[in-house]
Amino acid sequence: MNGTNVSRTVLERLAGELPELTPEARKAATYVLENPRDVGVSTVREIAQAAKVKPNTVVRMARQVGFEGYEDFRAPFREAIRRGAADFPDRARWLQDIRKSGDLGGLYADMVRDVLDNIEETFAGISTEDLKAAAEAIWAARRVFTLGVGVNNSVARNFTYLASTGMTEFHAIPRPGSTPVDDLAWADGQDVLIAITCKPYRSEVVEAVRIAHEQGMTIVALSDSPASPIIRLTNHGFVVSVDTPQFFPSSVSIIALLETLLSFVIAVASDEIPERVATFHARRHELGLYHAEDK
């Protein structure tokens, strides 16, 4: 969510209280965590209706995290909007022009808008300190396992491939013919698990994160909600925006965040890493793996 640090603090506090809430209050809290921009422009009745709970449940939820009532709770979100959550005017005009361009113009505009919004919303909620802490944990690890299934399997493998140009102990899981749980059987507190899953959450990823937590591994989680079951068990949790008009969640912000995280790992790593990357690519040139331009 584009907004102030205050609204972000409220969301973090709400996520921390989630296990302690009643089932109905948890429904309201989950809706707020997944739709924070709605809070600043919605009444208590509108939020309650959207979350499928009673208005007094929303009020109790607000009080649970230290506010006198819903209006007090809503104030930081209204301030976030006031401070500039709106789109850039030039981009808005550009999207309007696309929408008028033909039969598929509306779809084109919706896809482009969501891609840009997803990137903005994802990085608006993440600080350099958050990324640096995760990067330092990754660099200090004995081994790093990157877990993604379904569409996120290729995302995890792409991250691992990029990391392998300078570092050796990065492993994409599940390995062919294996399961995530088996691949983590001998991992411990010296290792890091980077786990990725978005709604509907994949059970094998949730189970692997639970086991990694029990084994003392450091966990870096990427998911689409502060209420995600893998975010709740993580050491370094990153909420990504994956909205799209299509039936599948968007991978754009996940890929962008992983690329940024890898750049932070390289930044905090020892001086040998740039030399390794240079050696890796020099060897590829020597082996003729890159196309030579016609002379």
Automatic annotation (TrEMBL):
Residues 8-84 form the HTH rpiR-type domain. InterPro entries: Homeodomain-like_sf (IPR009057), HTH_RpiR (IPR000281), RpiR-like (IPR047640), RpiR-like_SIS (IPR035472), SIS_dom (IPR001347), SIS_dom_sf (IPR046348), WH-like_DNA-bd_sf (IPR036388). Keywords: DNA-binding, Transcription, Transcription regulation. One of its GO terms (molecular function) is carbohydrate derivative binding. CDD domains: SIS_RpiR. Residues 134-272 form the SIS domain. One of its GO terms (biological process) is carbohydrate derivative metabolic process. This is MurR/RpiR family transcriptional regulator. It comes from Sulfitobacter aestuariivivens. The lineage of its organism: Bacteria, Pseudomonadati, Pseudomonadota, Alphaproteobacteria, Rhodobacterales.
